[in-house]
Design a protein that fits this description.
alpha+beta, Nuclear Transport Factor 2, Chain: A, 4-stranded antiparallel sheet, 31% helix, globular
């Protein structure tokens, strides 16, 4: 099996293993070594326990896998200083993973945070955070 097919199968397995389930650190680390992505997953799991993620499109190129997907769940944990709204949401996102030795070692992600805030009834109450991205050589 060539690298791109292997990486595609790996990412599909990753989504199937985590989607709609509790994402324990042990389960996450089975697929991910990128500490920043682990932090994102843990944050979302705490805020939206057992959230689901569904792949809508996937492209591969060498060691990279690009996924356009949607995430859905229920707001049951604190979102920064905001208590749970217990509202359901569905949010589109796109993510590019870099794979090495059957692990996600790096990622780039964009998500529609305003759509999420609107669905939770929080638009205008908090501002989405923008993370400064440093250029990698």
């Amino acid at each position: 099996m060539d690298t791109e097919k292997r990486n595609r199968a790996f990412i599909l397995g990753y989504y199937n293993a985590l989607a709609g389930k509790r994402k324990t650190e042990e389960l996450i680390r089975r697929y991910v070594s990128d500490e920043k992505l682990i932090g994102h997953i843990k944050f979302f799991e705490q805020t939206f326990p057992g959230y689901d993620a569904v792949v809508e499109e996937m492209y591969t190129a060498g060691d990279k896998v690009f996924v356009r997907a949607s995430m859905s769940g229920r707001h049951e944990g604190s979102l920064d200083d905001i208590p749970p709204t217990f509202k359901h949401f569905k949010m589109p996102f796109a993510i590019c993973y870099r794979i090495k030795d059957n692990k996600i070692i790096d990622h780039w992600m964009i998500a529609d945070q305003m759509e999420l805030l609107e669905q939770l009834g929080l638009a205008g109450t908090i501002k989405p955070e923008f993370e400064k991205v440093e250029k990698k050589d």
